[in-house]
């Protein structure tokens, strides 16, 4: 772990991170500018962004490799150019799926590029970015770091902690670490049940990352304590129930991903 990463890890535990998962996606269509704007309004600390890459090599905010669930398009993101994807409606699905939360302003929302998101919020936001399916998108890490450098969110004279990068792919994180060892990285982990993490795994993760992001349902107090005692951050995903949030805070997590940043914010305020 290099100096900047060390400083970040020292600073962050005192601030429990409220990470707006796909924006305030409990209230607005995920990964739209509307969802990110609402996340900021609801006082999330970071907006979480999943990245996919278009046929013409543009990084766009989308969780799935396919367009079907969150737009009126269909097929793989990698088979369409950005121009094609910009013609799609990324909001109407939400109104149909959640009529009680429907908002006419969501109709016709566009899929944003990473650059557009950063242009919208600049340095007023913090970004928690995931490289999705990096095996499908060769070169996505280089493109990501180029964009972050261009907007001075990383690199010389950038403010520490404006960007955290996360991935389930260790290879993707190692690649990023080799390009810029100062970027704080989170190793995402997925457990089927009763998560355990060995000292060997922890020692290995510490070589390139500042923390882990496990699915919250599989972890317990002992897991959290072991990770924290080893000096790693822990940001479980995706926690939407208030009682689950309380339990995890009691166990000592250093932040969590939630679709309801306002609910977590109110709990953090009370600590
Ligand atoms: O990035 C944390 C969490 O978002 C991982 O799960 O599938 O929602 O990206 P997913
Ligand atoms: Ca994610």
Automatic annotation (TrEMBL):
Domain GP-PDE residue range list: 16-268
SUPFAM superfamilies tied to this protein: PLC-like phosphodiesterases
Gene3D superfamilies xref list: Phosphatidylinositol (PI) phosphodiesterase
Pfam family, one: GDPD
Cross-referenced PANTHER family: GLYCEROPHOSPHODIESTER PHOSPHODIESTERASE, GLYCEROPHOSPHORYL DIESTER PHOSPHODIESTERASE
Protein name (database record): Glycerophosphodiester phosphodiesterase
Organism from which the protein derives: Scopulibacillus cellulosilyticus
């Amino acid at each position: 772990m290099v100096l900047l990463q060390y400083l970040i890890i020292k600073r962050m535990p005192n601030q429990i991170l409220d990470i707006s998962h796909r924006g305030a996606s409990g209230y607005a269509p995920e990964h739209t500018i509307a969802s990110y704007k609402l996340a900021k309004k609801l006082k999330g600390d970071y907006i979480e962004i999943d990245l996919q890459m278009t046929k013409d090599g543009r990084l766009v905010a989308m969780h799935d490799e396919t367009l079907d669930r969150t737009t009126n398009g269909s097929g793989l993101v990698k088979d369409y150019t950005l121009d094609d994807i910009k013609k799609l409606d990324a909001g109407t699905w939400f109104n149909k799926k959640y009529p009680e939360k429907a908002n006419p302003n969501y109709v016709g929302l566009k899929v944003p590029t990473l650059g557009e998101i950063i242009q919208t919020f600049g340095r007023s936001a913090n970004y928690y970015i995931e490289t999705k399916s990096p095996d499908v998108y060769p070169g996505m890490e280089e493109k990501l770091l180029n964009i972050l450098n261009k907007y001075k969110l990383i690199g010389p004279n950038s403010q520490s902690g404006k960007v955290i990068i996360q991935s389930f792919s260790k290879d993707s994180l190692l690649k990023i670490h080799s390009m810029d060892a100062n970027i704080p990285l989170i190793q995402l982990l997925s457990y089927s049940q009763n998560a355990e993490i060995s000292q060997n795994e922890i020692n290995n993760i510490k070589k390139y990352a500042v923390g882990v992001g496990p699915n919250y349902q599989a972890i317990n107090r002992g897991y959290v304590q072991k990770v924290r005692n080893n000096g790693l951050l822990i940001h479980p995903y995706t926690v939407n129930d208030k009682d689950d949030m309380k339990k995890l805070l009691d166990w000592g997590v250093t932040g969590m991903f939630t679709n309801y940043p306002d609910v977590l914010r109110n709990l953090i305020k009370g600590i």
